[in-house]
């Protein structure tokens, strides 16, 4: 999740001390990013009290993939529970399991309850202050996503990301295009390749997130927003034909606008 500070969106000097000195406070945008804000029960209210005019950008990927990615992230950082237990052991841990295992389970599973967390943020921020990005589209078509982000923020002049980015086959994702055709990519910790998720774990998570994904589709429909590609796939697996038809109607209406 990103908190975007619009010009003059906060006059709290203590908070602003965490940011570099802006060259132009009337036009510059400041960003704060944290994976911990989105699922927090306290963060939305506190953020709104401090930054009522901020804009919120949240990136949603398939919650099953997000859970697995966090597990692998913790393994890379030598978390004891992640190294000791398999992914399925973690996500299926029972209430009597060791505290370290239950803590890791919570960090894997709870952030993926997207509709619950979005509803909480929308309690304190108007829907037009919140941008929801399809994580799969950002990976495959970043220029289009960044065009949407710029429109959402009102950035001028508009940067053409289709000319600023190029796909790096060695890295496996899009990177900044520099002069002379050179590329500048994110560090080694980004874009790690993991072993495939165990089928047992995949089935468990599909069931675990089923109702939450349905609720997310209803929320996005209510907001008049398109469904992320991964969510459409999950609904198709559930046979949620009505929800998909409603999403298609909304998509056609958005194109006409």
Automatic annotation (TrEMBL):
SUPFAM superfamilies reported in the protein's UniProt record: P-loop containing nucleoside triphosphate hydrolases
Keywords assigned by UniProt, alphabetized: Disulfide bond, Glycoprotein, Transferase
Record-linked InterPro entries: NST/OST, P-loop_NTPase, Sulfotransferase_dom
CC per GO annotation: Golgi apparatus
Residue ranges of every copy of the Sulfotransferase domain listed in the record: 49-212
UniProt-annotated binding residues for 3'-phosphoadenylyl sulfate: 69, 174, 190-194
Disulfide bonds: 175-185
Enzyme Commission number: 2.8.2.-
GO molecular function: deacetylase activity; heparan sulfate N-sulfotransferase activity
Pfam families: Sulfotransfer_1
Family of this protein: Belongs to the sulfotransferase 1 family.
PANTHER family, per database record: BIFUNCTIONAL HEPARAN SULFATE N-DEACETYLASE_N-SULFOTRANSFERASE 4, HEPARAN SULFATE SULFOTRANSFERASE
Name of the featured protein: Sulfotransferase
Originating organism: Takifugu flavidus (sansaifugu)
């Amino acid at each position: 999740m990103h908190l975007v500070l619009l010009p003059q969106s906060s006059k709290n000097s203590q908070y602003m001390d965490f940011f570099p000195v802006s060259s132009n406070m009337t036009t510059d945008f400041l960003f704060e990013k944290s994976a911990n804000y989105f699922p927090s029960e306290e963060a939305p209210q506190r953020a709104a009290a401090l930054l009522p005019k901020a804009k919120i950008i949240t990136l949603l990927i398939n919650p099953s993939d997000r859970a697995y990615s966090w597990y692998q992230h913790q393994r890379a950082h030598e978390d004891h529970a992640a190294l000791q237990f398999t992914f399925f052991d973690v996500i299926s841990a029972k209430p009597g399991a060791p505290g370290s295992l239950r803590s890791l389970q919570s960090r894997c599973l709870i952030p993926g309850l997207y509709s619950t967390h979005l509803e909480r943020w929308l309690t304190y921020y108007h829907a037009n202050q919140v941008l929801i990005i399809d994580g799969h589209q950002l990976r495959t078509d970043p220029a289009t996503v960044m065009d949407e982000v710029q429109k959402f923020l009102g950035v001028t002049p508009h940067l053409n990301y289709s000319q600023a980015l190029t796909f790096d086959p060695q890295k496996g994702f899009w990177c900044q295009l520099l002069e002379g055709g050179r590329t500048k990519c994110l560090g080694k910790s980004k874009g790690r390749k993991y072993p495939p998720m165990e089928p047992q774990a995949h089935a468990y998570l599909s069931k675990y997130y089923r109702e939450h994904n349905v609720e997310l589709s209803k929320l996005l429909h209510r907001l008049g927003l398109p469904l992320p590609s991964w969510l459409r796939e999950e609904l198709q697996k559930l046979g949620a034909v009505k929800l998909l038809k409603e999403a298609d109607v909304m998509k056609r209406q958005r194109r006409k606008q």
